[in-house]
């Protein structure tokens, strides 16, 4: 995640939070007061979003200094002061909320993903995200997934072939899709989502090139059976499962030996983690 | 929420989901196939985001037609088909995910807010949002709060004076803040956040002009006591409470007679509601 | 007024003044010539726009140095050299006109506002601006009003309720407006514009919450009488007057004891003050 | 002036006047009320800005209809209703101020320019504008000058060579400039500003190619004498005068036979003309 | 290629060709004159860019009508009038050059690609483009390659793994790269560029997952020998060749049985085809 | 060519080449590896685009250092290493292709123009470019023409009057055009394109003000004859020729004594020159 890529996003975030300046600060806080504030984890969390916070303050005020006591992606306990911001109090206050909005959201993603990926450590299974991201925030959300320990599935409609129920409906059936696929060369990986054993068998018996099969909303038992079938017919095909997998059962699914578990919730239903920014000391310029 | 205001946001959402076209669709779906899809509520929800969905498809393809069976803001039951999209299958598929990403998020907010505001119906209390919004999505999130039945607190740092702990810290104490405030004319409403009874009393005994006092993280009993104090000292001041208020206890707090209950979670920790878009029929152009 | 907020405006100003470079400079001025120019006040004025001029030259050429002999908002006499720009002559010449266009306009506003606010010094009256600003320049114009000593009225339609003749017409009368208002909670200040004593009395006798009343185009005598009425009925309401108030009579109106005098002319009919930028010395790089 | 050229400018104007919607309208005005408003000239003026007003309302709301009773550029008397806007009252109110801000400014320019060009009708003299335009508004201001009857001087630094005092200072003297010019081919017209007779003579005696000479701040008598000199030395050279020319003396200067009179004030010190928009009738959708 | 995707590009193209209007047209051509012009192929070519031309004129003037006598991608002979534009002559002239600049460039690409792909028709070889595209024009250039009959290689650094000499240098050798690759899971296809037989053998003998091998600048004989090696070691790997392949020898290389031939020249060194736009008839509005 | 002018173009180029990061680099290259790469001329060429390359790397990563061994515009032989880039290997690899895409294209233009202008050195003829530029790249292409030694013709429709066949057709004939022209004052240079001797004579015999005549597609002999005619009738008029002039015959045409030779091909049909960027050394941060 590079500065050039998020600069416009951050300017928009600042504009939307301050179209005509910070009225409270301008009313009350003299320009010459400097201060130092810390970021405080109010629950256990994985820190994510440091480059964004740095970019927010840099855009607001070149002279603000941001320092971190832990690296990006580190787990910290509730009560940890994990970063410091030093500069004019006006700039600290103007950047506080926008910084926290980014930081709480991205750390929320990374924290959740970390908990899930820890459960499947040691298995061959990777936790994938999806295209179910919040509009305008995709680059950042996918970044937070990686920081958390997850793996990015395709970024967009432009970088992977993924055939789903609506494609099958549009072409009149899975067989028609596979026929079409055989005649259509592509340099991208091809994945097909199946909802039943019948569909799975059609895919496995076809000679169309399919790299990944996604078992959509299969039960635990059905996934087990599906994996056996796949091993028999097309052992080289990768297997993704999706639907109904949560923090409390992911381990069990991973132990079945699937290649990928994907989750929309890690980006579309993010719970912000609790972080606050507290000014700890102020002084006048020149002191 | 007007078209001119969200057009850039939607173009960015489309670009981020399709920087180089929809490879699956271009590989498989012939241009001449038309279809009709419906939006299906997979849980009980309040529909929110119709103008955004219309704008997404209009930008993608002027000829796509979007129709709704219920008005914006309506509650629908799981299983309801609440909207239809008709056009080329390519356009339907290209707009599907971006539409759903907006719709599931905004309906998620509206649904949550509706459940909370229903609980306080009949009381004088209003449910407010905060500035804890997702960067770039503020206009839409605040719109969804209104659709859900909530009331918008200030939109940004530019349209309300809200004095919080960091301001007090920066000026060396609440009394200093109130002194400064008395000498600083403003045409905006003034709100002060207090964390203790001591702070509350300082506010109540000051002759600085304060329109709203926010009791931050006060317990139920303390709010009760605070309201009595306020009635004695400054009955015209409005009272906002914040912290620890959830769907399951909001009613109880409202019945205390506070003016406003504010919640960051309704915008910073949104659970998407489950909606899918299903193609139900396809035909060839000219049929 | 922050750099991130005006950067796009300045880039647009440069693009519109130099879509394909400065042909005169490229034809005549060698790259290696450095120079120093000063800004010269050709009439008495209040300097306003220093951060904009700095941003213009910084965008044009990082190595240009801008220095001021007086702070922003200072009054200078005709003949004063109040700032210096040092860098390549090419950069000086390319930034000259855009800088002056900003500086003459903003100083024009600040100068006019300063003259008016000086006349009402010592009274309780504040001079307000309006939404009658030049498109695209609102942030800067409102900034110049503050530098001049004025106070900003609402910035936009989003941060204040202001009810005017067209709202009254649309709802069928002032009484209907006030009835509607009573049922419509808002966290913003409410102001109503009245054109007659009849309207004023309706407002004063209503129990709708109104924070400010604006007497639109009332004569001196009528304002006097209106203030008495207001003192009787609603002493806590603030009073704004508008229309027909100029530099030569503002003092007289302020002495009546109104809270606010607003003027559209200070932003919609700005007379630029006369400033020029003169190169005083040139030398070759390395000298 | 084309729609594609001003669309971004208008979206910015709307965003700056309504970053989070029109709070007054949303509080008070029901969505279903339609209305018709007129634009009223409150002084004699030349109407300018019709395409901008149309674009403002079109962007706000495709269904608003704008009609004019006089064509762009027409002079109307105080009291004339020269245009009508029909649509939802919400849209009328949201577009009112932005429309008027454009209309009053552009008509202000056109009105002033019309009065000045009328005075020099019948002479060969053209009234020119300058690069002293308000940042971001150059395309529109130069358009208003044309509508008023004036002629555009160069648009930017990219489309004309204009040598002024700072260029002369940078190169060490006018002779050096002319020498340099002789060796520097250009496809653009070349104009030189002179401040004294000495400078004028140097230009007239040089064999550098100069298309226009600008007499900067010459007195009436000096212009007369300069014209005679020019007729003797270089009759084909065009003559522009600048400085001290106002509506009340422009005729006299034009009669001297100069080719161009340029004025910065027509764009940098615009007095808005007085126009209001009044709702004259409202009705409910379906009536 | 969709309208929303190219709108900004076209507005930029218009702004860069007309920052302050079309001076010739405004000087000479009355507003009320309508006309009809045709696009004339002045050499044999494949038409490409119709949607762009339509978008150019639509942005300039909603009332201009564009019609085509052949579909996009069709080959036409020199002398063919393949499209017509009808509207005001001013709009035709303003859109002429920008339209042609797009049309001649994109048709230039499509024409070249068509000639090359025709030569390899019937073989299994696909002609690929590269990332050697002109900045800002990638979406359009890649579209023209498809129209010409070519296949798009990866669009960007985000949608394919392609390991080249600089990666190998950075990691200290090809073996190190392959070791790293084995430990690095990806959902994208993996391609490796080799420059020698030694490198090829390392790839073929590695058990890292490689989907495509690119033989960079191999001679005809060496490609032949490489293909045999690949058939022996890893028959499932796809083979791309690059370097030194031109229209006059592509057939010969394709017959060797490679999967892909890639060419940078088809996008980085485009020869525009000769097309002009000629007004054939004019009339006055109302005729 | 200034940084503010190309920043947006470069960000777009980076976004289009890396919408979601560089997957290969992130997969394989550790963050802490630094390196140094050189730009290698693989054919004789004129270096052009140094400021663009610097801006690309600066935007990507402030810490990358770019150094040149020759100045912009210098001719280098095949095999020359003419520039060095030092920084993290990740940044080098991410900026490689975008840099080269600019550098190869701009140097391609400059190289071609240099070869052509060298042939006409010593004559009075200037080589001009045209408006036949690639959309979005005009500022850069025109810059490369200047670097190569050519002269820019008008930049856009806004900065020169150029009357061509379509204008003549629209007004019903060349005589009508010249009549119109006489009544239409302009401050821009006027050029007319003629296709026949008949047209040329009409221009020469008219008393309309024409600064340049362009002989469109005249043969060598006809140009000779035309020049004689022009010398007789209007010796002060400048002469431009266009059409059929290539590197191998430009000298011969220049010797005829024309003022300008214009070429569309130098910008619309650019052959990229062959440059590569090679990493020559890598080390770990701290070494």
Give me the secondary-structure topology.
Six copies of one chain form a homohexamer.
Chain A: H1 3-17, H2 23-28, E1 33-41, E2 45-46, H3 50-60, E3 65-68, E4 75-76, E5 81-88, H4 89-119, E6 126-128, H5 138-148, E7 161-163, H6 165-171, H7 174-182, E8 190-194, H8 197-205, E9 212-216, H9 220-233, E10 238-242, H10 250-254, E11 260-262, H11 265-268, E12 275-284
Parallel strand pairs in A: 6-11, 7-8, 8-9, 9-10, 10-11
Antiparallel strand pairs in A: 1-5, 1-12, 2-4, 3-5
Helix pairs in contact in A: 1-3, 3-4, 4-5, 8-9
Low-confidence stretches of chain A: none
Rg of chain A (C-alpha, Å): 24 Å
Name of the level-1 CATH class of the largest domain in chain A: Alpha Beta
Helix proportion of chain A: 40-55%
CATH topology of the largest domain in chain A: TIM Barrel
Oligomer: homohexamer
Total count of domains of chain A: 2
Structural class by secondary-structure content of chain A: alpha/beta
Structural write-up:
Six copies of one chain form a homohexamer. The model of chain A has no long low-confidence stretch (mean pLDDT 96). In chain A, 43% of the residues lie in helices and 21% in strands. Chain A has helices spanning 3-17, 23-28, 50-60, 89-119, 138-148, 165-171, 174-182, 197-205, 220-233, 250-254, 265-268, and strands at 33-41, 45-46, 65-68, 75-76, 81-88, 126-128, 161-163, 190-194, 212-216, 238-242, 260-262, 275-284. In chain A, 54% of the residues are buried. Chain A is of the alpha/beta class and 287 residues long. Chain A has two domains: 3-116 and 271-284, Aldehyde Oxidoreductase, domain 3 (Alpha-Beta Complex); 118-268, TIM Barrel (Alpha-Beta Barrel), CATH 3.20.20.70. The first copy, chain A, has eleven helices and twelve strands. In chain A, the strands form three sheets. Chain A has a six-stranded parallel sheet with strand order 6-11-10-9-8-7. A four-stranded antiparallel sheet of chain A has the order 3-5-1-12, with helices on one face. The interface between A and B is large, with 75 and 75 residues.
């Amino acid at each position: 995640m590079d500065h050039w890529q998020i600069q416009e996003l951050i300017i928009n975030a600042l504009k939307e939070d301050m179209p005509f300046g910070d009225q409270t600060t301008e009313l009350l806080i003299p320009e010459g007061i400097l201060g130092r504030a810390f970021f405080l984890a109010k629950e256990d969390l994985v820190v994510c979003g440091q480059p964004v916070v740095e970019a927010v303050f840099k855009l607001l005020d070149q002279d603000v200094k941001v320092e971190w006591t832990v690296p990006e992606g580190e787990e910290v306990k509730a009560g940890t002061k994990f970063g410091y911001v030093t500069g004019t109090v006006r700039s600290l206050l103007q950047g506080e909320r926008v910084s926290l909005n980014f930081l709480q959201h991205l750390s929320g993603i990374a924290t959740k993903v970390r908990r899930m990926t820890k459960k499947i450590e040691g298995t061959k299974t990777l936790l994938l995200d999806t295209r179910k991201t919040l509009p305008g925030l995709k680059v950042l959300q996918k970044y937070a997934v990686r920081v958390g320990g997850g793996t990015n599935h395709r970024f967009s409609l432009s970088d992977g072939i993924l055939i789903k129920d609506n494609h099958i409906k549009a072409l009149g059936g899975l067989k028609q899709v596979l026929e079409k696929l055989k005649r259509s060369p592509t340099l991208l990986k091809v994945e097909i989502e199946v909802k039943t054993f019948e569909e799975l068998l059609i895919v496995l018996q076809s000679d169309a090139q399919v790299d990944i099969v996604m078992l959509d909303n299969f039960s635990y038992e059905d996934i087990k059976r599906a994996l056996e079938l796949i091993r028999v017919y097309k052992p080289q095909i990768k297997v993704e499962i999706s639907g109904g997998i949560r923090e409390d059962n992911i381990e069990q699914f991973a132990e079945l030996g699937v290649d990928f578990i994907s989750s929309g919730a890690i980006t579309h239903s993010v719970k912000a983690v609790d972080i606050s920014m507290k000014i700890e000391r102020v002084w006048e310029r020149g002191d």
